Amino acid sequence: MQVVKTVSDVREAVAIARDGGERIGCVPTMGALHAGHMSLVEDCRERSDFVVLTIFVNPTQFSPTEDLSKYPRPLEDDLAKCREADVDLVFTPEVPMLYPQGFETYVELQHIPNRLEGAHRPTHFRGVATIVTKLFNIVQPDVACFGQKDYQQQTLIRRMVRDLDMPVEIVVCPTVRERDGLALSSRNVYLSESERRSALSLYASLQLAQERIQSGETDLHAIRTAMHDLMASREYVSPDYVSLADPNTLDELDTPVPHMVALVAARVGKTRLIDNLVIEL
Known about the structure:
This protein is of the alpha/beta class. The protein has helices at about 5-20, 35-45, 75-85, 95-100, 115-120, 125-140, 150-165, 195-215, 220-230, and strands at about 1-5, 25-30, 50-55, 90, 145, 170-175, 235-245, 260-270, 270-280. A hairpin with a 2-residue loop joins strand 8 (about 260-270) and strand 9. The longest helix is centred in the C-terminal third of the chain and has 22 residues, at about 195-215.
């Protein structure tokens, strides 16, 4: 496994692989890798010959109220996981490599970012779109894998790739959960034992929505209220939003449709968590 810090080193390694007829895969991450990330690597390995994993805590997707310095950075543990998963190349750039002095070019979408996570973190998706575009330009992958857990993020990336004619296949991989249903997240390490138990209410609220919609209930407003109330009833949990939306535009729905997505976000203690569940009729 190669570990590199510069754009030129990535391009050189990828060029050698491509000259050898290999298909290039990419898994962009911010590190603090867990089983959810490694499932993306496994899927990417099945779809490509040369797997590039990027580890970069992207400052432009943090809002002024979020503490960038506290984001976990267990690089050596991350690299050990990558070696075990047979990653071919790990790109670990420093901030000045990707955002040199005088940087002023950003990528923005007009519709998808203006709700849900975007309403609570106004500059977040501009940062996501910009860094993913930069990483795609650097790695030039044939395929890139993202997790369903960050549903709005992968929706935005799929739309960006389509709109800008980027020659990369976007694969969305299922959310990986603990046995009790808690979605894996790098932020889970901040939860106390009691907070973690309360955090299960996020997934429980999604299951509630699925059960009521699939049983024939059509009052989505009442279902959203029940989702909110379920989370709010748990100690330490302060809901940010609940949503029952179109899976491609994230527009809120008035009545059930055959394919929809339920999304929630909440603060559990001081830790902000998100989750979602695709609902089929």
